[in-house]
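Data availability (excerpt). All sequences and predicted token strings are deposited with the supplementary files. A representative entry, DUF5110 domain-containing protein, is shown inline so that the format can be inspected without opening the archive.
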Amino acid sequence: MRPLVLNYEDDPRVRNINDQYMVGDAVLVAPIVQPSQTKRLVYLPAGKWIDFWNHREYDGQQDIVVDAPLDKLPLLIKKGTILPWGAEVDHISETPDPTMTFNVYGDSGSYHHYQDNGLDFKYQHGEYNDYLVNVDHGQVSVELVHHGFQPYRKITVNLNNQPVTLTYNSTTEHYE
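Structure token line:
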């Protein structure tokens, strides 16, 4: 969590915003801070933004009104972002999921994804994977940049609700 001013230091509008924050560089969170509120005003910094819930696209440097019912935290994702979306687990000692999903916000983007066993320090000896997920106007590629751990068997990349599934070929060590 970080204040918007750390990401958009040249934007004078964000200097006094204390009820919105960023998670990383691409997820804007605008929680409800007033009782019984079901809508709220959100300021969007420069760039293009996509509503996490309804996928509506907005231009930045403007105020918008978003729905905020009790069960939905207002989230806006910067266009060009790829977010990992793994299966829900109760604790890290569960068997690793053999699949991974990435959601693309927009039609292009790039993302490095790190994977290890989450239990020990074997990553220090190279037992981890580094994936590079690229999407360029609907063309999807996944490269296993570093292979030191059991890779995902299948990777699904969701492009505007159109899934593209790639399967790991252990002979070529590529996703096809």
